[in-house]
Each structure stands twice: as C-alpha cells, then as structure tokens.
Amino acid sequence: MPKLLVGELAKQFGISPKTVHWYEAQGLLPETVRSESGYRHYSPEAVDQLAFVRKALGLGFTVKDIKTILEIKAGGNLPCDLVLSLLDKKIKDLAEQIRTLQELHAHLGVLQQEWRLKPHETPSTAFEICPLIEES
C-alpha cells in the first residue's frame, strides 16, 4: 500500500485533515515522513493505527487511555490487561451515569405533571423569566 497524504487518509476515515493533524499532535499517530515540499506521507502502519484509534474512541476510550495503550504496545507488550481494566471502569461509570439519568428522568416526569397543572402566572419581577423553573 502506498503512503497517503493527509487528505487521502482523512477521506478514507470520513474525517477532516485537521482531525488527522490533531490525532498526530496528541500522539495517537506515529510521526510521519515529510516530502521535500513538506507534505506528510502516512504509512500503512499509520492507517492501521488510525483505524485502531477511531475504534477505541468509538468504544468510549479517552485519548489518554489510547495513548497509554499505544505506549504499552510500542514497548513490545500486549495492552489487553490494561484494556480490560479500563473497560471494567467504563462499565461501572456507565452504570452510574445510567442510574443518574434514570433519576433525572423520573424527577423531570414529576415536574412535568406538576407544571401542566400549575397556572402560568405573570412573572413577579422584571428579572423573572419562567416561574416554573425558578420556583422549582
């Protein structure tokens, strides 16, 4: 596979060239070879690494997580134990977020029922915007 210019690489993944540059600046892509005219040329390995980065981001791993995973791999080790550990934490965090959102959903449902029954009053001050929110 020939080396790709940033625009070609970006197009392949449906992202902008700025995003590719940002990934590179964050250390998520290997340093690129530059042509005499200064254009970056991305290797097949960079393409594979970008595919990995996109998948990891899509699964909710942070840039910091991914950098650590890539560093372990670059050191010659498989980062799968770390990935499992990070995944365990993500699942716990998601469960907490779901619980919090369910509580908010229930609270908003109660407010919705109460507010539908409450008459819409003229604000008591010039600064009051919506008594429903302000009095809750």
- State the secondary-structure class: mainly alpha
CATH architecture assignment of the largest domain: Orthogonal Bundle
SSE pattern: HHEEHHHH
Largest sheet: 2 strands, antiparallel
In total, the number of strands is 2
- What is the CATH C-level name of the largest domain? Mainly Alpha
Per-chain topology:
Layout: H1 6-13, H2 17-25, E1 33-34, E2 40-41, H3 44-58, H4 63-74, H5 80-117, H6 131-134
Antiparallel strand pairs: 1-2
Structural account:
The protein is mainly α and 136 residues long. The chain folds into 2 domains: 1-78, Multidrug-efflux Transporter Regulator, Chain: A, Domain 2; 82-119 and 130-136, no CATH class. It has 6 helices and 2 strands; from the N terminus they run ααββαααα. It has a two-stranded antiparallel sheet. α1 packs across α2. It is elongated. It starts with 5 loop residues before the first helix and ends with a helix. The model has no long low-confidence stretch (mean pLDDT 92).
